[in-house]
Design a protein that fits this description.
Blueprint (H helix, E strand, L loop, with lengths): L61 E5 L4 H12 L3 E6 L4 H13 L4 E5 L5 H15 L4 E4 L15 H22 L8 E5 L12 H21 L5 E7 L7 H5 L20 H12 L10 E4 L7
Parallel strand pairs: 1-2, 1-4, 2-3, 4-5, 5-6, 6-7
Helix pairs in contact: 1-2, 1-7, 3-4, 4-5
The protein binds nicotinamide-adenine-dinucleotide and magnesium ion.
GO molecular function: oxidoreductase activity, acting on CH-OH group of donors
InterPro entries: NAD(P)-bd_dom_sf, Sc_DH/Rdtase_CS, SDR_fam
Protein name: SDR family oxidoreductase
Length: 305
């Protein structure tokens, strides 16, 4: 049943042309500092606020999502809530406003949304986040490691040791730390979904540190998937292509590249966060019971290995 807030004329099940489902955007050549805010994103993105329709595929599930305040993570949080799950939102303290917006959308569905801000570079937060999440939700059966840092740098000589350290701590160390703690709570039937990227196989010359962490996430996913499969815990990854989120105009791309963002894909346009969410729903749902160690590419048609 759709509630009044989710009733609409078109949703992800409407038969439509993927080329024109969303218009081709031309973002201004304007960069802000990271983390970017959804509330300041120009043009705005579609996170499924009025376009994602749930059908009960995650009824009663308990999900922890990192980077859930904005972009892809927020679209996943909205989709999970519409599918019937309660959600813990992890994000940086400076993103409180974005997180509150997502919390409001989830609560409008009658689902629980628990906000636990903190810095995933900090090993102690990685542990306390999981503990508080399991306590607040009364358990845990979906973990989405999605937080990420992406800052474009022209040359290796310009890549500071601080950025190298922060990119690896955020994008891959936190995946190890959060997942290790979550294993204390995840039982058979639980799922772990890691956000990797097309950058894992097609690294941009300006994203060498970021792309390296994304390749590591693919190996982490495929190795851990084999370790946990006998326990009934499935591990998979989603590899988005160019998706319009606050990550991109907050130094994620060279400023002059922003107007062309996503145009080189076979679909000819950037993807919207809500177009990525169904992949996370599928991988979290029991319907994907035989899908393990897989990387689901959601990238507008760019060839992948
Ligand atoms: P986003 O900026 O909306 O989300 C990233 C989130 O990561 C931030 O909102 C923030 O809450 C979180 N984060 C960053 N550093 C953190 C830290 N130190 N501690 C805690 N949280 C932190 O952008 P997005 O594009 O939705 O990114 C989500 C994921 O998707 C990232 O892993 C990104 O690498 C990946 N991705 C994005 C694209 C794209 O084109 N947008 C493509 C491929 C992969
Ligand atoms: Mg954010």
């Amino acid at each position: 049943m759709t509630t009044e807030s989710t009733a609409r004329s078109t949703d992800q099940y409407t038969f439509q042309n993927p080329v024109t489902r969303f218009e081709s955007i031309e973002p201004p050549a304007k960069s802000t500092s990271e983390p970017g805010l959804e509330s300041e994103l120009e043009p705005t993105a579609d996170r499924g606020e009025t376009s994602y329709r749930g059908t009960g595929r995650l009824t009663g599930r308990k999900a922890l999502i990192t980077g859930a305040d904005s972009g892809i993570g927020s679209a996943v949080a909205i989709a999970y809530a519409r599918e019937g799950a309660d959600v813990v939102l992890s994000y940086l303290p400076e993103e409180e406003e974005d997180a509150q917006t997502v919390k409001g959308i989830i609560e409008a569905e009658g689902r629980k949304a628990i906000c636990i801000p903190g810095d995933l570079k900090d090993p102690e937060y990685c542990v306390s986040l999981v503990q508080q999440a399991a306590e607040g939700l009364g358990g845990l059966d979906i973990l989405v490691n999605n937080a990420g840092k992406q800052v474009a740098v022209e040359s290796l000589e310009e890549l500071t040791d601080e950025q190298l350290d922060h990119t690896f701590k955020t994008n891959i160390y936190s995946f190890f730390r959060v997942t290790k703690e979550a294993l204390k709570h995840l039982g058979p039937g639980s799922t772990i979904i890691n956000t990797t990227s097309i950058q894992a196989y097609e690294p941009s010359p300006t994203l060498v540190d970021y792309a390296s962490t994304k390749a590591a996430i693919n190996a982490f996913t495929k190795g851990l998937a084999q370790q946990l499969a006998p326990k009934g815990i499935r591990v998979n990854a989603v590899a988005p292509g160019p998706i319009w989120t606050p990550l991109q105009p907050s130094d994620g791309q060279p400023t002059e590249a922003l107007p062309e963002f996503g145009k080189s894909t076979p679909l000819g346009r950037a993807g919207q966060p809500t177009e990525v969410a169904p992949a996370y729903v599928f991988l979290a749902s029991p319907e994907s019971s035989y899908v393990i160690g897989e990387t689901l590419n959601v990238n507008g048609g760019m060839p992948t290995p």
